[in-house]
Design goal:
There is one protein chain. The chain has about 190 residues and is an alpha/beta fold. The chain has helices at about 20-30, 40-45, 60-70, 90-95, 120-130, 145-150, 160-185, and strands at about 5-10, 35-40, 75-80, 105-110, 135-145. It has a five-stranded parallel β-sheet, with helices on both faces. The longest helix is centred in the last third of the chain and has 26 residues, at about 160-185. It is globular. The relative contact order is 0.19. The structure holds flavin mononucleotide. The site of flavin mononucleotide has 17 residues, from loops.
Length: about 190
Amino acid sequence: MRNIVIISSSVRLARNSHRVALYFKRYLSEHKIANADIVDLNEYKFPLFDERLRSLPNPAQQVLEFADKIKNAGGIIIVTPEYNGGYPASLKNVIDLLYAEWKRKPIAIATVSSGAFGGSQVITSLIFTLWKIGAWVVPSMFPVPKVQEAYDPEGAPTDKEVTDKRAKTFVDELVWCMQASEKMKG
Ligand SMILES: Cc1cc2nc3c(=O)[nH]c(=O)nc-3n(C[C@H](O)[C@H](O)[C@H](O)COP(=O)(O)O)c2cc1C
């Protein structure tokens, strides 16, 4: 079975966007789409970026493990909150840490906010950074407005039917790109 890594970006104390990461993990396994692994940046608690992995003299085990997960992922879903119109420093911290691992990696972006616009202002800056590093950003969106009302703390959506329908459109696009990528690798 294909594997998808879900990056949960928020390291905020009372974070809510992690609910969306939990939802996708369950959605992907419930529908037998992929083995899904959450890479939780709050668990890694990486120090502030000071060098790329390839130039680090003694990389921490955690960094190597993180790099392996990204490298081996067939595709990635990034779940990101919107902070002041941008994505969190925790996410930029790990994008900059790696390089080749991101190359041509199919990545779909789910944006999250507590307000009405679903974190959609994050999209342009995050797409640009991922494009710049050579990732393959999938052209589908999953904005989550009012996350605190839309999901419970375990990631169960308030309206499962509608949420699963939106998730299908979003994930189908990612899977298409993953399959295309696999074919090209031979
Ligand atoms: C520093 C900070 C900045 C924020 N800026 C925005 C913003 O620009 N637009 C928005 O819709 N929500 C904003 N919010 C609200 C977040 O979308 C909301 O807290 C959401 O739950 C963030 O995800 P998290 O709980 O996983 O951290 C901000 C929250 C914080 C903590």
